[in-house]
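Students often ask why inverse folding is considered easier than folding. One informal answer: many sequences map to the same fold, so there is more than one right answer. In these notes we will look at a single instance of the problem. The structure comes first.
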């Protein structure tokens, strides 16, 4: 009997989420990237910041690896590389809700 192979979980950057990757709360993200939580919320809605993930009911967070990638690329670089696919995902979530 062969072992079950699990599909890797990918973040918005297409990188595999590893055991060392951790969730970062909105407040932690705001401190890390030196902008306010409100600014982060606005940038997420515009596709200029990594998407939030529901970690439990009423709690959302970001992947640390995505924040690192965002810091490397900057706001506009992130939007050019990943923003459109993020906005399409948001639109499809709203249609199914």
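Output (designed amino acids):
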């Amino acid at each position: 009997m062969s072992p079950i192979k699990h599909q890797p979980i990918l973040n918005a950057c297409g990188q595999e989420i590893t055991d060392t990757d951790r969730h970062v709360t909105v407040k932690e993200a705001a401190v890390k990237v030196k902008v306010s939580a409100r600014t982060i919320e606005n940038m997420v809605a515009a596709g200029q910041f990594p998407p939030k993930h529901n970690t439990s009911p009423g709690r959302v967070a970001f992947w640390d690896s995505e924040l690192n990638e965002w810091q490397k690329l900057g706001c506009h670089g992130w939007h050019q590389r990943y923003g459109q696919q993020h906005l399409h995902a948001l639109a499809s979530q709203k249609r199914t809700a």
